[in-house]
Amino acid sequence: MRVKFKPILLFLALVLSACAGSVPEQTGVKDLEEQLQTLGVAPYVSPTSTTLHATQAAQVTQLSPSACPGRYPAVESLRPEYHLSVYLGIEQHAAHVEERIIYPNRTGDLLSEIMLMVEPNWLPGVFSLSGIEIAGDQVDSYQLDGGKLSLLLENSLPENCSVEISLTYHIDFPEQSGIFGYTEDQLVLTNWYPFVPPYQAGNEWLAHSPGAYGEHLAYESADYFVTLELADPPENVLVAAPAPPVEIDGKFSYQLHGARTFSLAVLTDYSIRQQNYQGIEISVYSQKATIREVDAALGAAVTALQVFEGVYGPYSFESLTIAQLEMYDGMEYDGLFFLSEEVFKTYNWNNRNMLVYLVAHETAHNWWFSQVGSDQAMEPWLDEALATYSELLFYEVAYPELVDWWWEFRIEEYDPSGEVDATIYDYPIYEDYRRAVYLRGAEFLQALRDQLGDELFFSFLRSYLEDGRYHLMTSEDFFNLLADDFGVDATVLRLEYFGE
Q1: Would you say residue 218 has pLDDT above 80?
Q2: 3-class state of residue 4 by DSSP
Q3: What per-residue confidence (pLDDT) applies to 268?
Q4: What are the pLDDT digits (tens) for 262-275?
Q5: How far apart are CA 171 and CA 167, in angstroms?
Q6: What percent of the chain has pLDDT over 90?
Q7: Contact (CB, 8 A) for 82 and 224
Q8: Which residues contact 71 (CB under 8 A, 6 or more apart)?
Q9: With contact defined as beta carbons under 8 Å apart, do 461 and 393 qualify?
Q10: SS (H, E, C) 222-252
Q11: N or C: which end of the chain has fewer CB within 10 A?
Q12: DSSP track, 141-187
């Protein structure tokens, strides 16, 4: 189906400097905010990440000391905390990790068990667990089955009480390219530490097994405190991380608040190029990319932050890191994403290429994944369709003359088909999954926008983001908000695009 471009953002168009191969100047944000007023929605004033975190700070009802057992203190934070001390041997391709989790029970249930996801343990010979303590007591009995670790609590954990879990383990990274493991010049850590998945009412944890493609993990928002020590690092080593480091006595300390994950890459013989956008440090780590390709990625990231802060609201971290890896395509994490060498090579001295639109896509995941979480295995459209559609908004605002090109090259050329709410387990090949979730999903959002009109559509997206920030949202949340708060009956669209 040919989707006709309706130029909502022609009147939002920014005067953005985007000369081929150069980083754009920091202009246009004020104009964007002024022009957003024509949508009838108050423009966002972009606060710093500190301000954003302060406005989202937990206000927890303080319980009397007697309300929680002595071994389970009263909850002091709405979010789990992960304290990770990592001793990483680059030459050995191995890490020794001491981890401390402070988990607040805000599930509404009395918990007799805690589930941890241990992704490295899906691979044989990679993860070795040497010790577990719960509330200071050593645990000798546990069940580690594939990537799922079940811990029975000697005493059940009441609501609004917290438990401290300590783990000691060793990781021998596999030799493989991609987002976990090592090659000659990269050692990549994603989903490398045990973490508590979201809890569903009725004593169920949102714990899926891997599929052939797509992301199967769901995450609560959490606060991360990471200390990294490198064993005998070479002089030419760089660490690509989602937060700026503080170096003390040869150790690097990082803090990342309100994030779903903490990922990093240790890189040798790489270069780094940086650009500051309104206090957000944007960095590109590359080895096999030209200066023009790197600058194009920097420029696209600056433009994407300008556009998405204007359309959606504030970016929530102090920095944004892009790292070129030996991998396929791209992959997003909080404040950090990875792109393949092949993606950089698509740069053709203009903005009609995969490098530019994938930078926009992965940057958008800092809203549709990081801020608003979802069950990525069972409802991947909630982040992937929204991130894909964000590419369109990027072009509408910054490069409106390329909107028709985007629809044709990015969407129509690949024959969108299938049901938007497909799971990662539904299609035998990735291309069919992408056609349904990413591409057909973008068409659905355009159809919804056509039905609502621009003003109501963007007001809805902002409301959905506000409701979902630091939470997990579902398809029912999406459509219930449409119906209950906006009076929109999307039954016909659901039948056409979702088959329900």
Answers
A1: yes
A2: coil
A3: 96
A4: 999 999 999 999 99
A5: 13
A6: 83
A7: yes
A8: 135, 136, 155, 163
A9: no
A10: EEEEEEEEEECCCCCEEEECCCCCEEECCEE
A11: C
A12: --EEETTEEEEEEEEEE-TTBEEEEEEEEEEE--B-SSSSEE-SSEE
Residues with Cβ within 8 Å of 292's Cβ and at least 6 positions away in sequence, in order, are 20, 21, 347, 349
pLDDT tens, residue by residue, 156-189: 999 999 999 999 999 999 999 999 999 999 999 9
C-alpha span between 101 and 156 (Å, rounded): 17
pLDDT tens, 45-102?
A: 443 433 343 334 333 444 444 489 889 999 988 899 999 999 999 999 999 999 999 9
Alpha-carbon span 352 to 358, nearest angstrom: 11
* pLDDT score for 32: 56
CA distance readout (Å), 303 to 28, 44, 132, 146: 9, 16, 46, 42
pLDDT for residue 433 = 97
> Around 130, how many Cα atoms within 13 Å sit in the side-chain half-sphere?
8
Are 282 and 274 a contacting pair, CB within 8 Å? yes
Q: Across all residues in the chain, what is the average pLDDT?
A: 89
Q: What is the pTM of this model?
A: 0.90
Residue with tokens 């200071």: 136
> Which two structure tokens, joined as six digits, stand for 217?
């993990």
* Cross-strand bridge partners of residue 473: 374
Residues contacting 495, CB < 8 A, separation 6+: none
Q: Quote the CA–CA distance of 127 and 118 in Å, as a whole number.
A: 8
Q: Which one, of 354, 376, 359, 363, lies nearest residue 312 by Cα?
A: 363
CA distances to 18, 93, 139, 229, 376 from 105, rounded to whole Å, are 48, 36, 20, 32, 23
Contact in structure between 194 and 149 (CB atoms under 8 Å)? yes
Q: What's the Rg (C-alpha) of the chain?
A: 23
Q: What is the dihedral of CA 30, 32, 33, 38, to 10 degrees?
A: 140
Q: How far apart are CA 77 and CA 82, in angstroms?
A: 12
Closest residue by Cα to residue 304 from 351, 255, 241: 351
